[in-house]
Amino acid sequence: MAELRYATAAAAATRASSSPSKRDADAASASSPLVASPRVGGGKDGPRAHQRWSLPPPVRSLLALEDPRSPAASTSYRILVAAIACFALAALFSAPSVWSRLNAPYLCRKEGIRLHCPRVSERDSLWENPHAAATSWKPCAERHLVPENETSGFIFIHAEGGLNQQRIAICNAVAIAKIMNATLILPVLKQDQTWKDQTKFEDIFDVDHFINYLKDDVRIVRDIPDWRTVKNIPKYASAQFYIDNVLPRIREKKIMSIKPFADRLGYDNVPMEINRLRCRVNYHALKFLPHIEEMADKLATRMRNRTVNLNPYMALHLRFEKGMVGLSFCDFAGTREEKAMMATYRQLQWPRRYKNGSHLWPLALEKRKEGRCPLEPGEIGIILRAMGYTKETQIYVASGQVYGGNTRMAPLRNMFPNLVSKEDLASKEEMEPFKKHVTSLAALDFLVCLKSDVFVMTHSGNFAKLIIGYRCYMGRHRLKSIKPDKGLMSKFFGDPYMPWATFVENVMITHQTRTGLPEPTFPHYDLWENPLTPCMCRA
């Protein structure tokens, strides 16, 4: 019996030692370097244990190296779990902040009046359009139309508005004179309340060149007869309207003055050769006086020589004067005092449109969505940074007095510190002859923008569309003329959750086809911005 009990006990011990859990524990203890193992060694003290480095009990229990139910591991295990929970909670609360910094918001980071935008790598196509698209067209509007022997009478117009509106009026006057086979009396540049300028045609344009260049198209005389008849013409009138309604009166009275004359001839309702004649007037006959051309050349050269190496420069037409801001009836960022002062200004200047002002807020929102509001300086700065233009970009600013002054310009100037105007490039002595006529100053801006490597507009208007069309016609469309999509930009600016990377991608995609390349015309197209169909042909 004793032997039987001994054998039974031995077998039980053998089964216990051969159980899977026991074998795994033994194997782990024997093979893991993280577990203490006895090491027998010689010496005067006899055998001694050598203890290897070991992990804390809670960590060992997490790695299944120690039983978590042991007293040593239990307390430490709870402490470790509490620490992990605190860390996870802190990470949860800080995640939005970390994510927002990793994905810089679309409006950049604002510190006071400064805006800090993430840098975008400069692209190869920042300054030039694709070569194939830019070289496929050439100007071809120089074929003259010989006038008939007898004139039907004389026509006289007042060219109203600023320089560029006057330029368009002069082109239209030559065109209607051709339509009716009339003699054109040299147009008068009308003085108005806004510009308060007394510039005459001969103060800004080369009269001899104008008359001589067009002599094979239209008869032009300098003197104004003493008597005339005034005839009102609807806007964008057709060529047939002039033949049916104006020509009989000219034959009867022999002279007629058309007043007002802004936008009094359409585009797609006149013969192609008449539109081609308008191009000849705009791009060939209207030439600024030599001293204006020479000064503009100096300014353009100084823009490129502002650094050690010859650099391209950007011309930015910034339309944010007080008059433009008021006339737009759009809402802009500003203090309560600024908004109150602007409301008073609008009420005084445009009382019929202002009324009681209650309808203006929803109207302003609608206009911004439709892209009919001028871009603020800070907004155009963010768009240019998204396009890849760096802080070192040289920018010529063509603008009047910006509404809000230095405070309004600070975000743009912070993003692009190399921001200059004609007054910064020229001395007071050089600018003095041009201050006699506001139109002369506008002519300098016009020519420097025309010669720029990239032209950027911030609001539609006669200046911007004439520059884009001129660059297109004269072959400078290989260089970019950027026309921001203000409607889409307002949507992007209004999204507070759009990350910077997404904003950059949207800006690039949106403006791939808005760089001043010639485009086929469409009904009611603007000849001055897009002269392709009537005035250009395949290269």
UniProtKB/TrEMBL annotation:
Q: Which residue windows does the record flag with biased composition (Low complexity)?
A: 27-39
The domain of life is: Eukaryota
Q: Where is this region: Disordered?
A: 12-54
> Which intervals of the chain form a coiled coil?
none
User: GO CC terms for this protein?
Assistant: membrane
Give the Gene Ontology MF terms in alphabetical order. glycosyltransferase activity
Q: Which PANTHER family match?
A: O-FUCOSYLTRANSFERASE 2-RELATED (PTHR31933), O-FUCOSYLTRANSFERASE FAMILY PROTEIN (PTHR31933:SF6)
Q: What is this protein called?
A: O-fucosyltransferase family protein
- Source organism per entry reads Panicum miliaceum
